[in-house]
Amino acid sequence: MSATLFTPLTLRGITFKNRIAVSPMCEYSSEDGFANDWHLVHLGSRAVGGAGLIISEAAAVSPEGRITPDDLGIWKAEHVPFLQRITAFIESQGSVAGIQLAHAGRKASHASPWKGGAEVPPAAGGWQTVAPSAVPFTTGETAPLALDAAGIGKVIADFRAAAVRSLEAGFKVIELHAAHGYLLHEFMSPLSNQRTDEYGGSFENRIRLLLEVTAATREVWPAEYPLLVRISATDWTEGGWTVEDSVALAAVLKTRGVDLIDCSTGGNVPAAQIPVGPGYQVPFAERVKKETGMPTGAVGLITTAQEAETIVSQGQADMVLLARELLRDPYFPLHAAHELGVDVQWPDQYLRAKPRLRQ
Ligand SMILES: Cc1cc2nc3c(=O)[nH]c(=O)nc-3n(C[C@H](O)[C@H](O)[C@H](O)COP(=O)(O)O)c2cc1C
Fold it and tell me: Is the pLDDT of residue 176 over 90?
């Protein structure tokens, strides 16, 4: 039998063996931004499990761009060697290694979830956060500093330098994190951007930073390697970023060297009402794809082989990204192939455990 989920997808010069990607997932397991054995085993297991694309967790482009002091980072040359080890292993399993480049903006300087998640003050190892405007994410938290022109220039330069290091580290895909209420999304949404300069107000002004970061990244990222952008396709809040904005943005990004839009939602305001359910974000990926012709990735509560297959076979998205299901089962792609009746390669070491296909 054949299943669209297990047909290859090519973006630029890179071919993914199937349409299943590991969605970026913060592990909060780094010291000073360094990857370590945890990241090798975590990402490596999912390569053994057969995902076509493995996107590392949000890697901070600067120390102040970390969500927590425990975040992965790629702001200095010393971060590169261990990442090289990870990308080499991922490739050895026939998967493609991607990295999500991120700046947490006003949501930075918090404790990791299992350390309580609260704001970390500078005296306790935290730092002053930055954002488009001096508006905190949660009432009562320290206000971020509104970035000035030099600060914006540094953000762009940090993304560019991180892209250069990503290449040195052996990644073949970059995903820019412009979702979930982090810095780039904060600029895009009127709910967090109250600027009156050329980075605030109109849609064109609010997407300016993302376009500048995209251009700086594309400038140093090889033409044969794909560039993805993750967006929150809606703020789910009156007066916020809308799906219409997402469609308009995707049409622009299509002309700026971006190859796929990864359509998540929400995260920019705590009070948003989100109708969470199986595949609840898929319609956004579908709409962006249908209205712009831009390839898309669908993410969010996709947990079964059949759901994933339906999304890609019906052309709602070109790729599915799975997060929590792949934490529960790193071998989900191998299991999904079996369930869909597709014969895929298992690692030699595991061949004796490969189930026979039902005919
Ligand atoms: C432990 C964990 C860490 C996450 N970290 C990130 C991240 O670094 N970057 C990101 O864009 N999304 C992150 N997310 C969101 C996921 O990538 C994904 O969009 C979300 O969990 C919905 O997919 P799922 O229903 O398959 O889990 C994280 C989710 C989880 C569960």
Answer: yes
